[in-house]
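Inputs:
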Amino acid sequence: MTSTVKRDLPEMTFSPELEGRFTKLLTNYPPGRERSAVVPMLLYAQDEIGSVTQELVEEVARRCKVTPLQVDEVIGYYSMLHRKPLGKYHVQVCTNIACQAVGGEELYEHASKQLGLGNKQVSNDGLISIEEVECMGACSWAPAIQINYDFHHSVTPERFDQLMAALRDGTYKKAY
Amino acid sequence: MRFNEPSPLEVRVISQRFDLPNPASIDTYLANDGYVAIKKVLEMTPEAIVEELKVSSLRGRGGAGFPTGMKWSFVPRNTGKPTYVICNSDESEPGTCKDRLLMENDPHQLIEGMMIAGWTIKSNKGYIFIRGEYRYLIEIVEKAIEEAYARGILGKNIFGSGWDFDVYAHTGAGAYECGEESALLESLEGRRGVPRLKPPFPAVVGAFQSPTILNNCETFASIPVIFRNGGQWYADLGTPKNGGTRLMCVSGHVNKPGVYELPMGFPMMRLINEVCGGMRNGKNLKAVIPGGSSAPVLKADECTDILLDFDSLAKAKTMAGSGGLVVLDEDTDIVAVALRTIKFYAHESCGWCIPCREGTAWLKKVLTRFHEGGGLESDIDLIGELASNMLGRTFCALGDAAAMPTGGFITKFREEFEAYLQKSRSAKTPAAQELALV
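Outputs:
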């Protein structure tokens, strides 16, 4: 369904790599089903530009041949999409039952206290944000956290502090 | 990578390549019986394929345990519509971390399973719906798909059959409900993951409103070996009507939590004591949540003779579910577990239907107030009543998944809830009326 609404925001372009991904993405789905690309496009673009801006909503709508409303209406549903930027490093701490059993809630309390941040709050320098999240699929290796998309298993409060220090002094490395 | 030591008691069927060097590479797969089953299947009729699956008694590994052969037989042919194969890799059931290992260590096995499904219904397109948080796995799966195309295994005229099959990875963006098959299909179309009215089921009206085979990641991963070694061979590994093996994910208070591949029907206490090294710190077992958080809890004394297959656990009024076992010791605060469980469902409720949206919200409020010391005597029965009024009345199974475990905790651990009341009375905490339900 094409839109007849006049759009005031300029068209966006992304990095060459992302443009390539989006071009391919639109060919993945059956003819006339470009709308299927909306959620993947929003998520991948958010990774690049920091948050889902109104500009991005309009751009995704244009590329996926839907109205801006049809893009807008999915954003509140998907918990990984956010309209405001989070930290450069978004730290997600699981407190669901498998992690809770081995100290996940205490880990989140520790994280919140150490960083001086509440749920989904961002540090003043924009470096770190935290979120209390649901099960991330690391139950047998709990307590687990994610830093952006990186998994960290068996995280103790001490290990957590080491990771935060590494984020700050630039020595952070993925675990796997 | 495995992330935990293997156990000598494992029966390595779908995890047999996990410890090989470069396990995800197509060369490793081809050197280890890879893409052999699909060649056999290309000589078989759809009826014969479905029959072999029925003999195998493979049942859905996502949680519902529906017989896979029967599910595939429901897809109508000659409707004139294109057909689709959808892999549910949305793995979000608390306690479950197995599809992660399958995608990380054997993505080609998954691809081959989908190809077999594709040939059965003459589908030309398959999608692997992977939860958004599993970005590194999406990258691994996309690389495997690329490798398969490069070797001419995916794409046009597969192994000279004249049949084309394309596979794509598709990312979610954070929503447990998108693991529900019809909500997944909505999300795949670019919408909010709100479930569809069923019937019609995805077999008839599925992806893009067309006939679809939709199965869990582990279910697809189990398909190639069934056609290499035979359905009866697979069935014989397990118990009657519960064939094969599954990846059991153990978490909680055991010495060796981990993911272990074991035959269906493996005794629960052997899993805890022999495979997982028993309870940690010498503590006693209090409870086991046997199949992800949606499965009603079992008390320690109910676990003695439990076999881990779909029928045995159903008989015990719980479920084998997703294969995620959370093992809890004597020091566990069951009320805290019940609260965290309902918080999860209240958070993840898609909001579409009143009994779930309001039911999970009210259960969370009452349990929160209870946990904070403001509970009323009548709250215990109120919680049980709220939960039982949700059962069977919600638009999809998430409502049941919230209600059944909550009912289970209240019924089986009533004394712990009553102890909370005692605690709050003796501590002279504010009366319930003063603790507003927020």
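Remarks. Chain B touches chain A through 59 residues (CB under 8 Å). Chain B has a mean pLDDT of 96.
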